[in-house]
Specification:
Layout (H helix, E strand, L loop, with lengths): L7 E4 L6 E8 L10 E5 L5 E3 L6 E7 L5 E3 L2 E5 L4 E7 L4 E7 L5 E7 L2 H4 L2 E6 L8
Antiparallel strand pairs: 1-2, 1-5, 2-3, 3-4, 5-6, 7-8, 7-11, 8-9, 9-10
């Protein structure tokens, strides 16, 4: 049986620290149930995160062995930059090519190991100032 590693990451509110683990949701009266507000990083510890930065591990690594998450930006040996996205309707991750003006263009790639052979994570959509 092929088991897939399921893990998530989310940025701290100050956008400086990634936390990895399992998402946890709010259930208090004053908050909408189901909004993710943290990541359980161990049995005893939770970390608060900005819920808009929550992304799941795709199960793939880039050409340098870096784990690829939803929201990552990848650069190929060519000139294209792609964003990793999730499609609820199809239940799958995919890449969409981003043009220099940060507008989507229609070229998409379904994810498989060959897509990452010549691509490298260069940043993510949440910390654009961190792109190499």
């Amino acid at each position: 049986m092929n088991q897939r590693l399921v893990k998530y990451r989310g940025l701290s509110w100050d956008k400086k620290t990634w936390h990895f683990g399992v998402p946890i949701s709010l259930t208090q009266e004053f908050c909408s149930e189901g909004i993710v507000d943290g990541i359980r990083t161990s049995w005893e510890e939770n970390e608060d995160i900005d819920h808009e930065t929550l992304g799941q591990f795709t199960g793939f690594q880039d050409s340098k062995g870096t784990h690829v998450y939803e929201g990552d930006l990848l650069k190929s040996l060519g000139v294209d930059i792609c964003e990793v996205r999730w499609d609820d309707a199809r239940g799958m991750f995919y890449l969409i090519v981003i043009n220099p003006d940060n507008e989507d263009i229609s070229t998409t790639y379904n994810l498989d190991v060959h897509v990452f052979k010549y691509r490298e994570v260069i940043g993510n959509i949440y910390q654009k100032n961190k792109i190499k």
